[in-house]
Specification:
Length: about 190
């Protein structure tokens, strides 16, 4: 593919990433552009605002701290795995994150454009965290056949809901089933 054709193909993806507040360094990695081009595109897409800066997320425990994060992380990973069937990994994440953001926006009456928020902080799971989650979750195995990632998708053994869990968590129950079992039963 010629450079001009590749740029024409990648521009809509890069623009969507910028509108979803992906950092310029992430945009440049996913769509294979320079960071300077990604920063310029970010400013263009976000009314002159600069790309967020700072430390990228590196804490896997963050994804399992609250029930909401466990469910949302699991939803994103399932959507990502399905998108990988049709897209290369970086574009699969872009596609999955767009639809994930629409679902988690809470604006059911307007399904178009709800993936684009005003700030990176307006997302329950921002793109930087989503990108890190996908990178650490991948299903590569070590020489002995064990998964390298400490995170795994499991089904709740009570209700069957898919949740994100750490590999050392032996209790495969979703937070809702845990709370309902721990509640005292009413006397009849």
């Amino acid at each position: 593919m010629k450079a001009t054709d590749r740029a024409r193909y990648q521009y809509p993806w890069a623009l969507a990433l910028a509108k979803m507040k992906a950092r310029a360094c992430t945009i440049s990695q996913i769509v294979n552009t320079t960071e300077a081009e990604a920063r310029a595109l970010y400013k263009e897409a976000n009314h002159g605002k600069s790309s967020p800066s700072g430390q990228q997320p590196v804490d896997i425990a963050w994804y399992t701290l609250t029930p909401e994060r466990r469910f949302q992380s699991a939803l994103l990973l399932v959507m990502y795995e399905r998108a990988c069937r049709s897209y290369p990994p970086g574009l699969a994440l872009t596609h999955a994150y767009y639809h994930f953001s629409c679902i988690t926006s809470g604006e059911w009456e307007d399904p178009y454009g709800t993936a684009f928020r005003d700030s990176e902080k307006d997302y329950q799971l921002n793109f930087a965290r989503a990108n890190y989650l996908v990178k650490i979750y991948d299903d590569q195995k070590d020489l002995y056949g064990a998964r390298k990632s400490q995170l795994q998708l499991v089904k709740c053994r009570v209700c069957g809901t898919i949740i994100l869990s750490q590999s050392d968590d032996a209790d495969h129950r979703c937070p809702i089933c845990i709370k309902s079992k721990d509640k005292p039963k009413k006397a009849e």
